[in-house]
Amino acid sequence: MRVLYFVFIVLRGILLQAQTIQFDQGNWQVEKPEHQQRVVTVMANEERVDSVYTEDLETGELKLVIQRYPLSRYEYYPGYDPFPALFRRVDIRQQEIVDSAFVESVETGEMVMTVQRFIKDIPNGAYHEFFPDGNIRIKGTLDGYNADGSLKKTGEWLEWGASGKVIRQEIYP
Prior knowledge:
six-stranded antiparallel sheet; 2 helices; two-stranded antiparallel sheet
């Protein structure tokens, strides 16, 4: 029984570690160009859908409730805990980039044009950052990047201290 429990904890830790996402813009290329379009189609602008049955208290009937969430990045605090605390959640949209270049073929020496397609993640929507205990630390809205490459903040941004009180409030255009 201990062996099964140990295996469960190890697998759970690996699965949770697989969900740890660094905020790079994405560049999920495949080696075979014939498979690239399938990868682009699968990963572009998906949304997360959760469904649950809830009981209507008046009639006792079960009703299906569907909730849709935008595509988001979830980042966790580093650590060896099998259930690491959520560090931040960033809503994103994805943009397909097509780029071409001429490269020399090793076999023939000819210049051959190659076309690459990849997905770039753009921060777009809600931004939430949390303390390790789960309390909210920063809340705001992002709308892509500024001309200098920094994140573009919009609307009201609030920052809370460890005591739970708002310590900073800023308004962006």
